[in-house]
């Protein structure tokens, strides 16, 4: 989790010592060389020549944190700006984690507000809550027809993976929406450094348990994707950093949209540990990605939305995924 901070520190030290003509500059340089494989997954230089195609497929992923609704049903939701931003966002496909649906309250009927009222006639949601007419979990909204759908797994605790096969003109693409096992750390413990210090032992234990669980979930997901008859796009909240087993396992057979078309550091976590990139968009070739973006101007949740635009040569043909190494 501290790798991006260490890379930045060593980079600053190297430049400072180099400008001062100190031989000690070789020490942070050695550290940067040893960590070279982590630099590409941490920082990207903008590619100004990658203009998005007119016929591209735009995909949005956003952990909306249950829209942060208050407990009092009659109080005004503090996140109407989030709903308004999502209504104005014109992505062809929108994938949500920690999605909240309340059929009994018009102002919280997210399927209607973000779906039928804004031109997204095709939706798929899973994982129902215990309250009548209310549910929480995951959702996929699409302007294009969903011809097949299903769940890869779910834990009944707001985590899981779902998929939808979406017909785009004459091609079909499978969209996976993932919310892997969370760190199970209360958000209030991450709002300030004192909370982190006080709970560090418990926090380390939860981080370890989360890593083990995500590795198991990843095995199920990987097998499912290898058996997919279509080219896959995988989006979501992975609750893991780009230096993890989860991330590098996926990179063995998928491309990462941030690495291909992102810019800057791309951090997606909106809390005191701001240097985390735990939300991702992965994709398979022959898809090409353009204009990946982390929407840091949208700070209504503890995650920032991410989006990317894809294009491909028609017709789209799936290539065989490499076997496990």
UniProtKB/TrEMBL annotation:
Kindly list any coiled-coil regions of this protein.
Answer: none
Q: Is DNA repair a UniProt keyword of this protein?
A: yes
- Alphabetical list of Gene3D superfamilies matching this protein: Endonuclease/exonuclease/phosphatase (3.60.10.10)
Q: Which cofactor does it need?
A: Mn(2+); Mg(2+)
Presence of keyword Transcription: no
Q: Which Pfam families does its entry note?
A: Exo_endo_phos
Q: Which CDD domains match?
A: EEP-2 (cd09084)
The biological processes this protein is annotated with in GO are: DNA repair
Q: Which InterPro entries match?
A: Endo/exonu/phosph_ase_sf, Endo/exonuclease/phosphatase, TDP2-like
Q: Which SUPFAM superfamilies match?
A: DNase I-like (SSF56219)
Which residues does the UniProt record annotate as the domain Endonuclease/exonuclease/phosphatase?
A: 60-303
Lineage top rank: taxon: Bacteria
In Swiss-Prot or TrEMBL terms, this protein is called: Endonuclease/exonuclease/phosphatase domain-containing protein
Q: What is the lineage of its organism?
A: Bacteria, Pseudomonadati, Bacteroidota, Cytophagia, Cytophagales
